[in-house]
């Protein structure tokens, strides 16, 4: 796959189904090129047998006897219902959420600058805050976090003894980031208004009349 992933990363000994990485790399909720004139042309389906990219509901007519799943959206991130994906994939260790009365999991990592105060458990890969009973925030992070190369590097950092915390952070910021970027791009970070962010107050000048300070 693209992004320079090693062959051992999460696929050693056929550990993961062949359709998983293509699924995570697929861009959903785009207009179907075949059925662009239909009001049902939004591509939010995926065929696990064909692995031919995102499909709209009208495309499913050509995949009647295939395993098709539906991708949904939560806060601009792709998710899938647990009831659908657990029939084909072991999601043990991946944190689940309840959205619109349905339990879901996220497909890919969601950026989080730093864990909040009082957080006791984070994703082993991207350090996103998690409940104590989970190890990964998404399916993509589970692929990376259970790969031989990742575990080997993390073990080396743990046994090094010097600046363990900083070393582990180095894993997330270097090795892990390059692997996660091989999947579908995460939601872009919030737009920063640099004009406002870099605005500096002028030097205060004392008014010749009275004690009023005027800032330019």
Automatic annotation (TrEMBL):
One matching Pfam family: PLATZ
CDD domains per record: Bbox2
PANTHER family, per the entry: PLATZ TRANSCRIPTION FACTOR FAMILY PROTEIN (PTHR31065)
Protein name: PLATZ transcription factor family protein
